[in-house]
Design the sequence.
């Protein structure tokens, strides 16, 4: 698996913003097949930071109504990456 395909996008919500400020922890949506070592290597290579700990969570898809039928949303995997003291990732530069 390539480093570019491991991380799909950063996960930016109010809850993750509070974790970033309090614990220096950033969140990403990653590939379902990616493991913790691959996630750690991808974050260190793409953002040039030192990763201390990686925690993952698979969120199952939900069944939603669509007219008379039912549809299922996709499952996705979240990774919570804790960085070393003094390290930082800026997703929006100049904002």
Sequence:
């Amino acid at each position: 698996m390539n480093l570019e395909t491991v991380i799909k996008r950063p996960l930016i919500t109010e809850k993750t913003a509070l974790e970033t400020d309090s614990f220096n922890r950033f969140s990403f949506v990653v590939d379902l097949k990616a493991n913790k070592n691959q996630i750690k290597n991808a974050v260190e290579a793409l953002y040039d930071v030192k990763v201390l700990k990686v925690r993952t969570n698979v969120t199952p898809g939900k069944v939603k109504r669509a007219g008379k039928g039912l549809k299922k949303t996709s499952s996705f995997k979240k990774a919570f990456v804790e960085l070393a003291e003094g390290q930082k990732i800026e997703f929006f530069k100049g904002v």
